[in-house]
Design a protein that fits this description.
By secondary structure, this protein is mostly beta strands. The chain is built from three helices and ten strands, in the order E-E-E-E-H-E-E-E-E-H-E-E-H. The protein has a six-stranded mixed β-sheet with strand order 5-1-2-3-4-10. A four-stranded mixed β-sheet has the order 8-7-6-9. It is globular.
Length: 150
């Protein structure tokens, strides 16, 4: 596939369509400098996107770090800036991490450069309320959405 120069930035909405034709709406909440490393929130696209679209972090099915190659390969369709975009409303949440060897859950915090800045022990109940910690390439993200949210 040929790469194209596609512009995308914080606050942009985009659509990912998976192999099984499910569609997901993404919102780019952070971009690390001029790199292709991004962080965003995702919703299963079972609603109409219109001028009055209102998105809530609490309704997102997942939030994760991911690579932007899907834009450059024209797999992901950029819709433009979210009309309700306010960067301060879309910060990095805490994420859950599970250590199988010692059966412990952790809440992980990142700074704006995606560097881990805090880790604290949490209960399984609290862990269940957090997004899973991780990072995805473009194909991995599509597979993750298809496998876990369809």
């Amino acid at each position: 596939m040929e790469k194209k120069k596609i512009k995308y930035s914080e606050g942009d909405l985009f659509i990912i369509e998976t192999e099984n034709h499910n569609k997901f709406l993404g919102l780019i909440a952070r971009r690390k400098g001029r790199t292709k490393l991004l962080f965003g929130y995702f919703w299963k696209l079972n609603f109409t996107i219109g001028e009055n679209l209102v998105l809530n972090k609490s309704d997102a099915i997942t939030a994760t770090k991911f690579g932007g190659l899907g834009f450059e390969l024209s797999n992901w369709q950029v819709l433009g800036k979210y009309s309700g975009w306010q960067k301060e409303d879309w910060g990095m949440p805490e994420f859950r991490r599970y250590d199988e060897l010692i059966d412990k859950y952790y809440a992980i915090s990142y700074n704006e450069d995606f560097e881990e800045i805090a880790k604290r022990n949490i209960s399984k109940n609290e862990a269940d309320s957090l997004f899973k910690d991780g990072s995805h390439g473009h194909i991995s993200l599509e597979n993750h959405l298809q496998r876990n949210f369809t």
